[in-house]
Amino acid sequence: MANLYKKDSPFQVYISFKKYLDVLEHIRYNDRLEYRVNYAESLIESIRNFKELREGFQDTALLEKYEDLIRMLLADLFPTGLTRNEIKAASIPLSNITFNYTERFKDILKDAGKDFEIELRNISDNEFYVFCCCLILQSYFKKDIKSTIPFYYDIPNKQGIMKHYKITVNSDFTEITPTEKAKIPSDDVLDMLLENLDDFKLWKKHFPSQSWILKGFTIISLVDCTSEVALSDLKSSMIEIDPEDLNPNENLTEIFKSYFDVPELSFGLMTFNKKEQKLDKLPIYDSLLTNHILDFWINTFDEETRKNTFNNLNHNSKPVVVSNVNNLDENVQQLPSFSILKDNNVNSFMVIPIMKDGELLAIMEFTSPIAGSFNGLKLKKLEFFTDMVLFSLNRFYFEKNYQIEAIIQREYTTIHDSVVWKFRNEAEKYFTASLGKKIYTLKQISFKNLTPLFGVSDIRSSSEKRFNLMLQDLNQQIEWLNEIFVLTNSDSEKFLLALDIFENELNNEIKADTEQRFQRLLREEIHPFLQGKLEIRTSREIKAKIKDYFSHIFAPTDLFYHHRKNLDDSITLVNRKLADLLDESQIKAQEIFPHYYERFKSDGVEHNLYIGHTIAPELHYTSKVVHKLRYWQLKTICKMELEFQSFKKQLPVQLDIASLIFVYNEKIDIRFRMDEKRFDVDGAYNSYYEIIKKRLDKAHVKDSSERITAPGKITIVYFGMENQKEYLDYISKLQKKEVLQHDVEFLKVEDLQGITGLLALRVSFTLPQE
């Protein structure tokens, strides 16, 4: 049995003209006008021998076989006088099977091309099934339900512009009947189904596939509503401009083509930066927008001309419409802007300032290579969605500012998500009081009885490397200057002497202010002297040497910075990679139990975790949480070390890191310091923890000159044997996973100022084989 629907449905579908023939039978026996009786009788007699037209058929080939007969039968429904005006056809309900077209409908399908297949727009398989069920409710169960789903055909014209047609359907000549396997739901069930239109499976349960018969045909009439649909699509696209989503509508230009009925069209848009008095591109639309004219404004006019242009726009914000650039005044055709238009094949354009309260927000442009594409009527069409553009731009700026605030909070403050609820509670109390015009003093934000976790991945010997590279840079700079002064005349002898003194000082008895004094000599004497040489008649060789020298200067300091820059770049890369991995891993740590987390980047990355019931009072908190997070911390630092080893060789300057964890059992309090806008350990007693952290950095093994930390190893510092047992268990787990080696060292930490009794475990990472 053929299925006339491409999609699954509750229907067995038959094309039939029975109900229309019944109308003709009624005219034949009841109409008082003889010519109508004769006409109806002749039609009925003409198909008497073609029973399938009355009884129904599923073979669509019969539509072509009986094409002339069907056209004659339906002549009253398709008047010849309207065939060039109406877009009309017979159809199966909600099907792509159409026939008996008016001449205008035929022309539209012909322009669409041979390969075009007519399809309903934007209806899913599930929506289609439920809608078919609703037809059963309307026709068979006489439920008074109105379809709220508009149906459209999208059909391209011969220029390739997508035209949109709204469909109206006349179902007078269809009938719906149940088969033997059909279920007849009660009124209560039908009401329940109507309350659950989205529950496709529920509808299919009560109206199984092909359990009802749909017999007959419908009359569909199409109305060209391209402008209305395109306008709706434009509004949707404008609403969707979202800097957070970064998924612009790639069909925006195609929608404009439909809206303006211009087959070759380019669209451009730039926002106006009021503070800097310039146009800014929208990065998310960079690949979709074509800014011929606006790009010219940005790149060609000088700053003063641009500012005057924008000031004039604030006073005279009328759009510019040019239907045909070839008809512009001859004086205009001599300007550079005219040649830009011709170079980019722009023969018709519109430039529209977007204003709000007398201030410029943005500028749009529409361009086309086809002369006459734009005119005053096209400009008038823009009025219908100007308010939506304003709404979209306002929303864009709101979202942009919101995202900027989010970035500032994420990157520059320490109000972590886990504790922000307490700040919000205080802010809400303050806001509520202000609404009632009451005074409310914001309370201090603090969290008590927290267990701290501290870890650091420190870049080893960075200060020493920086000092040695500084010497390389300055010695190289002195060498370059010596070469220049040897080439110049005798008035540079004093500089040669000064450079000799500084070179000796750098390499033998460097002082705390050596670099600063050298910097001052450069700024006040040497560099002005060299600049003067460039401005007077000097040999090409000397000028080239001086220019080459200045090209190597780091402007903020007047010093050579090449070697130190390599070090700083290396440290920045290490810090970013390690910090990103730590932040990413933190997401899983927060799932163990919400806690306050902060990290700092200097010459390495250090992090603090503070865990306790007061941070998440609604959750169940036990000591197991601390143990899980301690194990997470150890695993994460191992992962950071392995990540470092994977990119270590790519660094401009070779570096090593040494990792350390400090285990502290005592509870501490933290308080938000309003003056510094960050959390800090609260109280003198709790500051003991901070003192230990700072002194561990360069601590040595007791009775030894060896540092407790070492590259390629993790050092765990603690006070008691209980912590030793706990971490040996963690280490054992990671040894089984071949993350750590079996070379655990048990160390005593040297006595630090006011701190005694510290112990340490040290174990090597299992590094990847080269």
TrEMBL record:
<protein>
    <recommendedName>
        <fullName>GAF domain-containing protein</fullName>
    </recommendedName>
</protein>
